[in-house]
Predict the 3D structure of the following.
Amino acid sequence: MPVGAGIAEPMLPSRYRVTDRKQETADSVTLELEPVDTALAAFRPGQFNMVWAFGVGEVPISISSAPGTPLHHTIRSVGSVTRALCDAGRGDVVGLRGPFGTHWDLEKAAAKDIVIVAGGIGLAPLRPAITSILETRERFGHVVILTGARSPDEILFAPELERWRGRFDIDVDVTVDYASPSWRSHVGVVTKLIPRAPFDPKNSAALVCGPEVMMRFAATALVDRGVAFSAIQVSMERNMQCAIGHCGHCQLAGSFVCRDGPVFSYERVAPWLRVWER
Amino acid sequence: MTTRSIGELLATHPFFAGLGADDVALLAGCGRNVQFDAGEKIFREGEPADQFYVIRHGLVAIEIMSPTAGAVVLETLRDGDVLGWSWLFPPYRWTFDARALEATRATELDGACLRGKCEHDPRLGYDLMRRFAGIVLDRLQAARVRLLDLYGDGRGAG
């Protein structure tokens, strides 16, 4: 479906009120939002909205809640707009345009083992997919979630990860780059968890999201393990501004990340991940 | 566990895949099973490095003491990982500490004994050196990736 299809005015933001705010880590916040007047169309896991901090600017933010539940955006404060959004409190109003872009293809993953590899804030766009997978758990084989963070304090959705870890029907492994001796789990890059994770590489689908270099290394580790290029999906990030494939800011080779992504088959984007941006 | 069962363990371990039966038997002859309690030091920086370990079950931290930060965990190793390569390279001293984070069972191989055997059998020496170089390369690359501080620059679409 073309980007923006079904959206009457794709450039016109709808007003949404912040109904809850959760500080996830020192610099990341989840906002729960409800429409003030017009609600956006239904979304699929992996899609994003353009989020306005009125008077400051607009940024693309993935949806971090599952379809059919209150709308969540998890935002990391890295610039003026995201800082303004992270500072928003209950009752404040932001603007939303969307949903835009492609989604995680869970149909393609049905009946297969699922390997989810997330790095840092990259877990946010994967959370709706994880929730959807767990809601229809019987449709999939083994489910493995591997996530990495800079330090234990910077693990996103830590209580949720702990809850998932407590389930008997999925495997969850968390690793951090830096830790004190009180940390009782893995230290090292997330890709190091892939070689021995319990999944059948010949019958697996992988969903990967995180910093681009991490995704490259993760995809390489998955391919080394025997996962087909075509079975790996990655969520890309570029400078998305219009979100409807008009402005060209997010062009990547012959594609626009806002329109043809952010979720791509790794088979398609692998050559692009080694291209330097200028 | 008997020497024979250590041999079976080594013969089926990916790190030793492709080694001849005689070489596996030789390695097994230099091995013994050990276990460490949670929190127990396996080796300390500066001590003679005369062994290496194949972790059978558990979690081990490679760490270093910093006067300002205290103990800093550099990496963790777990089931199936090989711990320690300093036994193979002069001056044969550990450059970091290793500590069991949880109850850990491992097979300890006598590196000092193996060094002597490698001196007399360069084919075996080259083979082991090649295998350990693979581990060193793997961990060097992981360390380089961590130097990028990947999670430090944010991810706007998230």
Remarks:
- Confidence is low (pLDDT under 50) at residues 154-158 of chain B.
- The beta strands of chain B are 31-36, 41-43, 51-57, 59-66, 70-78, 82-83, 97-100, 104-110.
